């Protein structure tokens, strides 16, 4: 009696367990999408555009904060137009800088990661060094080294912050 | 006629047996390949669910090398039947 009672109970418990879902392999569209995203050129261009957008907003913001011109000669409207032009100029130059930064950083990181076939912080360090060095290359070798080290440290900090945040 | 039918049935069975063996061999090859490349290329700490680029290129290289090694060893085993 005890044995025959035990068996139906075990059967219902088996039926209550969640069904195992079948294996879902990626579709060709998904693979193609991943391939497009893994392309270094596409990635760096997208990063450059995003950097440009970020630079635009930052430039607008900083340009608005920049000079509270209190020149008595201009009327309020002229002052407004002047400030607006200043903001626009500042934001455009800032957008260019950030776009170039994003492009170089993303391209360098992509190339290094593909070559090493590893996902590490070393990729970020090398990419940051290349970007910092390229941006401060005009100031001579010493400035390039300082820019390299500074930007590499900054990129590593940002990466660690983003990882912890996720 | 009866003898011919008998031999073709045996042949069919043989072919079926070989196909089954080949299928088992292929499945085993796939499982081993997946296990080896997964252990080699993918970090044990899973930070995200998508494969990142380094892992992708590592897997490409791993599969390519494994396949070349399999073919090479298969050729070597096939050509020199008596042991060296």
From TrEMBL, chain A:
It is found in: Mitochondrion inner membrane. GO terms for molecular function: mitochondrion targeting sequence binding; protein transmembrane transporter activity. GO terms for biological process: protein insertion into mitochondrial inner membrane. Keywords: Membrane, Mitochondrion, Mitochondrion inner membrane, Transmembrane, Transmembrane helix. GO terms for cellular component: TIM22 mitochondrial import inner membrane insertion complex. The chain crosses the membrane at residues 45-65. It is a multi-pass membrane protein. Residues 1-21 are annotated as: Disordered. Belongs to the Tim17/Tim22/Tim23 family. This is Mitochondrial import inner membrane translocase subunit TIM22-4. The lineage of its organism: Eukaryota, Viridiplantae, Streptophyta, Embryophyta, Tracheophyta. The gene is LOC103701931.
From TrEMBL, chain B:
SUPFAM superfamilies: Tim10-like (SSF144122). It comes from the Eukaryota. It is a peripheral membrane protein. GO terms for molecular function: metal ion binding. Its main location: mitochondrion. InterPro entries: Tim10-like, Tim10-like_dom_sf. Keywords: Chaperone, Disulfide bond, Membrane, Metal-binding, Mitochondrion, Mitochondrion inner membrane, Protein transport, Translocation, Transport, Zinc. GO terms for biological process: protein insertion into mitochondrial inner membrane; protein transport. It is found in: Mitochondrion inner membrane. One of its GO terms (cellular component) is mitochondrial inner membrane. Residues 17-77 form the Tim10-like domain. Mitochondrial intermembrane chaperone that participates in the import and insertion of some multi-pass transmembrane proteins into the mitochondrial inner membrane. Also required for the transfer of beta-barrel precursors from the TOM complex to the sorting and assembly machinery (SAM complex) of the outer membrane. Acts as a chaperone-like protein that protects the hydrophobic precursors from aggregation and guide them through the mitochondrial intermembrane space. Heterohexamer. The twin CX3C motif contains 4 conserved Cys residues that form 2 disulfide bonds in the mitochondrial intermembrane space. Belongs to the small Tim family. This is Mitochondrial import inner membrane translocase subunit. It comes from Phoenix dactylifera.
């Amino acid at each position: 009696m005890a044995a025959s009672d035990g068996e139906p109970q075990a059967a219902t418990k088996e039926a209550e367990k969640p069904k195992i879902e079948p294996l879902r392999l990626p579709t060709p569209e998904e693979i193609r999408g991943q391939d497009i995203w893994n392309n270094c050129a596409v990635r760096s261009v997208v990063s450059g555009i995003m950097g440009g957008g970020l630079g635009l907003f930052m430039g607008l913001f900083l340009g608005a904060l920049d000079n509270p011109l209190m020149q008595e000669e201009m009327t309020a409207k002229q002052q407004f137009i002047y400030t607006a032009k200043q903001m626009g100029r500042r934001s455009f130059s800032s957008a260019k800088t950030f776009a170039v930064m994003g492009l170089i950083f993303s391209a360098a990181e992509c190339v290094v990661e593909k070559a090493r076939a590893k996902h590490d912080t070393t990729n970020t360090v090398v990419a940051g060094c290349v970007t910092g060095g390229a941006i401060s290359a005009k100031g001579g070798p010493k400035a390039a080294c300082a820019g390299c080290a500074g930007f590499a440290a900054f990129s590593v900090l940002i990466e660690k912050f983003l990882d912890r945040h996720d | 006629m009866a003898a011919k039918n008998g031999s073709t049935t045996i042949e069919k069975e043989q072919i079926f047996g070989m196909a089954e063996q080949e299928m088992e061999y292929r499945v085993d090859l796939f499982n081993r390949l997946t296990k080896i490349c997964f252990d080699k290329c993918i970090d044990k700490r899973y930070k995200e669910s998508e494969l990142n680029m380094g892992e992708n290129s590592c897997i490409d290289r791993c599969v390519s090398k494994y396949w070349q090694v399999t073919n090479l060893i298969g050729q070597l085993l096939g050509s020199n039947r008596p042991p060296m």
